[in-house]
Amino acid sequence: MEFKGLNPNNVTVDAGLSVGLIGKAIKNSAGLNSDTIEKILHAYIDINPIWFVLGDGEMLKPNVKDMSQSENVTKTVTFSEETKSKENVSLSVNEGQSPLYSKMPKVVTVDTSGKDNVVLVPVKAAAGYLAGYGDNEFIQTLPTFSLPNIQNGTFRMFQVSGHSMYPTLCDGCYVVGEWVENWIKDVKDNRIYVVVSDKGVLVKRVLNRLKKYENLYLKSDNRKEHPNTTLEPSQIKEIWAVKMHLSFELPDPTVLYDRVGDLEAEIDHIKSLIKSKN
């Protein structure tokens, strides 16, 4: 926690632990059970598990520890060729068989402090990402950024294509998503997610029906022009919960006001028709 600048509450939230568990363990010098250890190591995948459990070796995994200071790939937000990083340090996560509804990202990038970089997947790279989301070399070709208040998790930035989420999200804007590991538990209804699937990289509002119907129901905010769709778990590669968006276009609120005004007028008209018939 000292190395990463965390407190017990940060670890509790990041690893999905019971409230107070870490604080009690520190206060009482108590041990951690295997389930807690597994959750912490999943939350902080740059930590060497042998060091964490046995105290042997180095704290960070070798491919993080061996980086020089010049290899720090954390960058400021600027969309230029300078952000193209050939020095991304990629970590391959355990690719053992995972439960269908709970997966870990195959590749993440970190800086010398072990903190995840935010990798950008622009529209022009979306097709390549579908094939290369688990490929170290492909991920290393993508730009990386450091963003304010985006930390203590695994994040990825995607560029929105099209008008299916208008006016919430505009064509060409960027969304920052946090990795969702447990799809059944952590995908919440009516929140926006980036769903990497056989159908493409989709940015949609999601209804979680995995328990009930074994699928996710993906909704567009612009429902007049873009139909909703469903995805089965076997079609899904990754899910990222949208935590932030960056836009170069400010939507005109009068469009929404006009829609509300039309709706109010239509309701009043219906009321008048009902009264006239009565």
Short descriptors:
9-stranded mixed β-sheet, 10 helices, two-stranded antiparallel ribbon, Umud Fragment, subunit A, 278 residues, alpha+beta
Helix-strand pattern: HHHHHEEEHHEEEHEEHEEEH
End-to-end separation: 71 Å
The helix fraction, in percent, is: 25-40%
Q: Can you give the mean pLDDT? A: 77
Structure commentary:
The protein is an alpha+beta fold. The chain has a domain of 184 residues: Umud Fragment, subunit A, CATH 2.10.109.10. The strands form two sheets. The chain has a nine-stranded mixed beta sheet. A two-stranded antiparallel ribbon has the order 1-2. The longest helix is centred in the last third of the chain and has 24 residues. It is elongated, with a radius of gyration of 22 Å.
Fold blueprint:
Blueprint: H1 8-15, H2 21-28, H3 34-43, H4 49-54, H5 62-65, E1 89-92, E2 107-110, E3 118-121, H6 126-132, H7 136-140, E4 144-145, E5 155-159, E6 174-179, H8 183-186, E7 191-197, E8 200-209, H9 210-213, E9 215-219, E10 229-231, E11 236-246, H10 254-277
Parallel strand pairs: 3-5
Antiparallel strand pairs: 1-2, 3-4, 5-6, 6-11, 7-8, 7-11, 8-9, 9-10
